[in-house]
Amino acid sequence: MESFLTEIQIRVLNLRKKGHTQEEIAHVMGTSRANISMVEKRARENIEKAKNTLNIYNDIIAPSKIKVEKGTDVFNIPNVIFSKSDEEEIHVNYSSLQIMEFINQNAKRYIKNRMVVEPFIITILQNGEIYVHDFEEEKAKN
């Protein structure tokens, strides 16, 4: 399968996941720890670029976007998502509780004491996945 990662990067990441130190990996691969460090760093950068690319693509194909306004009670967000997804005939893959957990993890900086303090965008994909985007970044793109 084609990837943004080289075979060496994949091997290093797999070994790191198994708990090996960079020094141990360097010894096994016959190179320096500094080289392994650079390989790992570039692998993580490539992964981040791939994630960003997917986010851009998902944003392009997203059939539905919701602007969550300042002053919105966080507890109302799941209902807003379900209403919008029903309009678009999209089955959201999450329960209300899961959406609340998702919002808590991915939109913390926009929320204080249950209230939205800065607007943000929720994107609903055709496959039912949801994503959080910064409103100002979204506005700048359009």
Layout of secondary structure:
Elements: H1 7-17, H2 22-29, H3 33-61, E1 64-68, H4 77-87, H5 96-106, E2 111-112, E3 115-116, E4 120-124, E5 130-134, H6 135-141
Antiparallel strand pairs: 1-4, 2-3, 4-5
Structure, explained:
The protein is an alpha+beta fold. It has 6 helices and 5 strands; from the N terminus they run αααβααββββα. The chain has helices at residues 7-17, 22-29, 33-61, 77-87, 96-106, 135-141; strands at 64-68, 111-112, 115-116, 120-124, 130-134. A 3-stranded antiparallel sheet has the order 1-4-5. Helix 1 (7-17) crosses helix 3 (33-61) and helix 2 packs across helix 3 (33-61). GO terms for molecular function: DNA binding; DNA-binding transcription factor activity.
Largest sheet: 3 strands, antiparallel
Order of helices and strands: HHHEHHEEEEH
Tally the structural domains. 2
Outline: elongated
| Helix percentage range | 40-55%
* Lateral strand order in the biggest sheet: 1-4-5
User: Which radius of gyration do the C-alpha atoms yield?
Assistant: 20 Å
Number of helices: 6
Distance between the termini: 34 Å
Kindly report the average pLDDT value. Answer: 90
Low-confidence sequence ranges? none
Strand content: 5-15%
SSE class: alpha+beta
Q: What is the number of beta strands? A: 5
